[in-house]
Design brief:
single chain; mainly alpha; about 100 residues; about 80% helix; 4 helices; flat
Length: about 100
């Protein structure tokens, strides 16, 4: 059990570095045009959802295929929202930046 906890802790600690970078993106994005700021916040949400997926995955004793759609739904919804936001803002002068985040 302590091996699992150590593994869990290490995985989350490493992923926290990704979340910290996403925090930086939001901070910088807040000083850019509003559509870039908004998509930066959406990217941060994806990172947090991914962290939650990682937490659940590491703690799971076994993968139950039927549970996978339920577990990935929040992350998938957050990713889909970024694509939809980009598509709604095709006229934006920042569209290339929105596309980069979306991809």
């Amino acid at each position: 059990s302590s091996g699992i906890n150590a593994e869990y802790g290490e995985a989350i600690t490493e992923f926290n570095a990704v979340v910290a970078k996403a925090d930086e993106v939001v901070t910088v994005g807040n000083n850019l045009p509003s559509d870039v700021a908004e998509i930066s916040k959406m990217l941060h949400k994806v990172c947090l959802q991914n962290k939650e997926f990682l937490r659940v995955s590491v703690r799971a004793k076994a993968c139950i295929p039927a549970d996978l759609p339920v577990v990935v739904k929040p992350m998938n919804d957050a990713i889909t929202a970024i694509g939809e936001y980009r598509n709604k803002n095709r006229a934006s002068k920042q569209f290339n930046h929105l596309s980069a985040v979306s991809e």
